[in-house]
Write a structure and sequence with these properties.
single chain; alpha+beta; about 45% helix
Length: about 575
């Protein structure tokens, strides 16, 4: 692929993003995160919490130029090798009917389908068209070589599927791109020829995808999604939802008129059409995008908070405006602020400002036209801002890392962030009626469905750390657990234990959690004061036990231990004077 087309890969292929298990194949990772000539800049990065560094801009620019030249040379050599292999295979296409292609051919086919983004299809038309022809022959004569869709995503069938989804997005955005990009009739003959090549690739890709899916299914059969591990289930269910065009993005932060840059818009829609494959969708953390179909410069992003952070499994939403993109950085506004109440991070302000060097709002290397991408911005927010200890992102605080004082301060900060995450980034998104961003509803529903057990355990730990979360904790449980809607109380009572102080002990982690109403808890406490022999654990197993009431407390913080408000008007009601 050609890195000079204005849209190189977001990171050097071969680079593994720490903590997310994502690899961009093809090239080796950089030897070190900072050039040797910018050691002082690296020291500044530590002071700034690692979000940016104030290095030597001249040295940085020189290193970028040299790196780009070396990458271009490697790309050219790799492309020449791929063209040679594909050309040889096409000239002997009949041999595929007799024996499967070699491992070298299969590896080349996967690389071409996964590495070439739509903006390169016309320039590399012969290579891509030959690849599609070989894949059709494999689907017809050697379906076992395609691989199984239910296996890990290393087979040729996965590469064909990803390429086909790019083609679908490209076809669906064609009208919008023409609308924003000017009159197609004014294009030169060469660009019209390129458009015809792209249309041929799209049509061939759709035909191949349908053929390959059928051939793989006929050969391997189909497995139910439930037999896979949770990580596979999550990826398989959420990957198709990571990118979509929507008719309207309501309450979009940036109200500017459409940018009058036809060529840039055409580049934009070719880049974003590849995001259906390149966006990270992992069990630990994911990124989802929604683009307004008649305004491709308007994008809304949803980042799922990474595991083992105070943002874990929360839904954090950003509005993005591509004004002079890719010549300059996008404008980004943070929306999940609780109506402007909460500052979630030293780099995420309650006014919506996002501090990041790529955006020009933080010290360090800024936007590089032709090299920096929107995907880099999104992954930087995900991995450099939504971190386990955001307290140390504050300039000057990093010197307290690995000290008792710093740990205590970070723990206090994280406790507040967890409360804000539960209040603003989890609870509102558990119900379609309270979700402020319905364009993500399909992805959010599946996210909470496939991770409900993990999130239930996570919230239990948060509640143990901070008892003031009790009301919101119970409200979340009643949305997340099957017990809140389906399980009968007798079954739950034998598998959970509610202590006098309101603590909920899970005796069987495979079932949901039901909690008695406020009035019931208060009556139980009074009875226990009169008779020490009657405890919650033993009374829950009595044959005469009435159903444990499922209730929902919205924002009832601090009411767990004393069962305050004993007026019998809790959500669960107070009608039955039972002995549960």
């Amino acid at each position: 692929m050609d890195p000079d087309d204005g849209f190189p890969p977001p990171f050097p292929p071969g680079f593994v993003l720490p903590g997310f298990g994502m690899e961009f194949p093809g090239f080796a990772a950089p030897a070190a995160p900072f050039p040797q000539s910018t050691a002082a800049g690296a020291a500044s990065a530590a002071t700034a919490g690692g979000v940016g560094y104030a290095g030597d801009k001249r040295s940085d620019a020189a290193n970028l130029r040299n790196g780009k030249k070396q990458a271009a040379k490697r790309c050219k050599e790799e492309k020449a090798k791929q063209e040679r292999i594909v050309k040889t295979c096409v000239s002997n296409i009949e041999s595929i009917s007799k024996e499967p292609p070699s491992d070298e051919v299969m590896q080349t086919l996967r690389a071409v389908l996964r590495e070439y983004v739509p903006s390169e299809w016309a320039k590399s038309y012969k290579l891509i068209r030959g690849t599609l022809t070989i894949c059709e022959a494999i689907a017809n004569f050697q379906p076992q070589s395609l691989g199984n869709m239910d296996d890990e995503d290393e087979g040729l069938i996965h590469a064909i599927d990803e390429f086909g989804r790019q083609a679908d997005v490209l076809a669906s955005t064609d009208d919008a791109a023409n609308h924003l990009g000017g009159d197609p009739s004014s294009a030169s003959r060469s660009s019209m020829t390129n458009a015809q090549k792209e249309q041929d690739v799209i049509a061939s890709s759709k035909r191949l995808r349908k053929l390959a899916m059928k051939a793989s299914l006929d050969h391997f059969g189909s497995e139910e999604i439930g037999v896979m591990d949770p990580h596979q289930n999550y990826r398989k269910a959420l990957r198709p939802l990571c990118f979509a065009l929507v008719p309207k993005l309501k309450y979009f932060k940036f109200g500017q008129k459409p940018t009058d840059r036809g060529r840039n818009i055409q580049k934009i829609f070719k880049e974003i059409s590849a995001y259906s494959n390149s966006l990270p969708v992992e069990y630990g953390s994911s990124i989802f995008l929604r683009v307004q179909e008649d305004r491709l410069d308007r994008i809304r992003a949803l980042i799922i908070g990474p595991e083992d952070t105070p943002y874990a499994n929360g839904c954090f939403v950003f509005d993005i405006w591509l004004n002079d993109y890719p010549n300059s950085s996008p404008s980004v506004h943070f929306l999940t602020t609780g109506g402007g109440k909460y500052r979630f991070n030293p780099n995420l302000y309650n006014c919506g400002k996002v501090c990041l060097s790529l955006l020009g709002t933080w010290t360090g290397p800024g936007w590089v036209s032709g090299s920096s991408t929107l995907l880099q911005v999104l992954i930087s927010i995900q991995s450099l801002i939504l971190v386990p200890d955001p307290y140390f992102n504050e300039p000057g605080y990093s010197r307290e890392q690995n000290t008792p004082r710093g740990k205590a301060a970070s723990d206090r900060y994280n406790r507040d962030i967890k409360k804000q995450t539960l209040e603003c980034a989890i609870l509102p998104f558990l119900s379609a009626s309270t979700n402020p961003y319905p364009e993500f509803q399909d992805a959010i529903d599946k996210h909470f469905h496939f991770k409900r057990h993990a999130i239930t355990k996570q919230l239990a730990l948060w509640h143990e750390e901070n008892s003031s979360l009790f009301g919101m904790y119970i409200s979340a449980l009643n949305h997340l657990t099957p017990a809140g809607k389906k399980r009968n109380a007798e079954q739950i009572a034998t598998k959970t234990k509610v202590h006098d102080n309101g603590h909920i002990e899970i005796l069987d982690e495979d079932v949901g959690i039901a909690v008695p109403s406020r009035a019931t808890r208060k009556r139980r406490k009074l009875r226990n004061a009169e008779s020490t022999t009657a405890t919650v654990a033993t009374s829950a197993t009595q044959p005469s036990a009435a159903p444990v009431e499922i209730f929902d407390i919205d924002g009832d913080e601090g009411g767990g231990s004393d069962g305050g408000g004993g007026d019998g008007s809790g959500s669960g009601g107070g009608g039955n004077d039972d002995d549960d």
